[in-house]
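Journal club prep — side note

Before the paper discussion, L.F. wants everyone to see what a predicted structure for a comparable chain looks like in token form. Sequence:
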Amino acid sequence: MGEAISVEELQLAARNHGMPLEALRWDLTPIGLHYLLTHYDIPDVDPEDWRLSLDGLVERPLTLSLAELRERPAVEVAVTMECAGNGRARIEPHVVSQPWLYEAVGTALWRGASLGALLQDAGVEEGATDVLFTALDRGVEGGEEQAYARSLPLAEALREDVVLAYEINGVPLPPQHGFPLRLVVPGWYGMTSVKWLERVTLVDEPFDGYQMSHSYRLRQEEDEEGIPLDRIEVRALMVPPGIPEFLTRSRIVEAGACVLHGRTWSGAAEVAGVDVSTDGGETWSEAELAPPTLGPWAWRAWRYVWSAEQGEHELCCRARDAAGNEQPLEPAWNVGGYANNAVQRVPVTVPA
């Protein structure tokens, strides 16, 4: 990485955090290790006064308390959530924003009310095409004061696994994860799963606010319209083997049989396989892929036994999915530094 990180980027990095890659060992990420991105400030919410409003193009507008949402039939789904900016700091030229490396990811068990069932109870009017989600957190971005808000196509919102979540890993949402209620959209990048949810509105066109029309779009030039981000790109990550050198995080591994393992996921299709390279991507061998024990929207484990020999090595892992998507060897640049799913590279020293 050629360009230094600015003080502004360090401020972002201090209040947001990634998942340490050694946490890939757990099926479900401990809550305190799950990645976090907070656009503005964490709202101060009184759960007794808080209400969720459901309005717009519906026959029966609703206002629901947290207790009323908890009384509805519960849905529980394990979801691997990843930030669209994961890998941004690995892109050249440097993109100024939250400086994610590989760690902006986590897998959790989310429990809450079915969004689709709630919409059906409200009665979706003819002509409704999208669902707008408005949060309580407010700030200024792109020179525009705003509440964080995004919309989702109605067909996606009606999926049975889209959840209005009030619990994570069996406990109430903590403030940083969107207390008292957040949206969880399996398979989509994390910006879609709006936290601190206040209002759900049925509309007849996609929302054109900042978080939809400007942010989270793939663009090569600042002034072009770009392509909106949605589904998570296929990716595999490796638990760094051995022990780290403190500053560089380079790994020191003993010679002999070394078990390499990690997790893999895709928002587009089922993962079809993971390959491992121990020579920087020159040659590849297939890893053992575990079954999807957590369900279709959560990561899967993979494993490969490497015969580590003395010297310097660069380990890589590369996933592919059933839709034919495969991780690239090198990142592709874009204005926002989004969707960089280039293969992870792990420098390793095997001493004599």
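L.F.'s comment for the group: The first helix runs from residue 7 to 15. Keep this in mind when we get to the figures.
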